[in-house]
Amino acid sequence: MEKANAIILAGGKNTRIARNKAFIQLAGKTVLENTINILQKIFSQVIIVTNRKEAYLKFKAFVAVDLIRESGPLGGIFSGLCYSTSYYSFVVGSDMPFPQIGLIQLLLEKCTNQDVVIPETNGEVEPLFAIYSKNCLPVIFHHLQKHDLRIRHILGELRVERVGEEEIDTVDPEHLSFFNINTPEDLKKAQTLLSRASNSR
Predict the structure, then answer these.
(1) Contact of 107 with 133, CB cutoff 8 Å
(2) Which fold has domain 4-199?
């Protein structure tokens, strides 16, 4: 098995922006395409977890269906870990257009005997930009059975390595990795960030 695979969670309901966030176009590519392209530079397998498989078959990734429907991101993590061929898997949301390779690699370097490696900023963890091991599966399944879907609730039952801001700032000083598109205003900000990046080249 490879040391780690990547899992993209694409099961959101897009309630605050009236379209599928993964398919939003930024600089001629969808957010999801951009994320896949970045992840494929690091991981040999990229898995998209969704409840609408047909919509994602055009992408160059393995498309997996949620094993437990209506269970939110925690259910998506569970499904992705079940499908993954690696002990560790990096998990990211499909609406996060700027994952920084340096930060992903930093998290990977922390994978020794932990169950979860997760960034922490302003006292809050970033559960949709983190690494989870297959050892999380029984704990997650227990919470899903209780319909306790908050990812943070599983952490107290697992071996967790928190990566603090001081280390994050060395590879992602603007914390772009955690930026996600939830609203039309977020989309405008993403377009501004892309334009700024292009102009600085």
Answers:
(1) no
(2) Spore Coat Polysaccharide Biosynthesis Protein SpsA; Chain A (3.90.550)
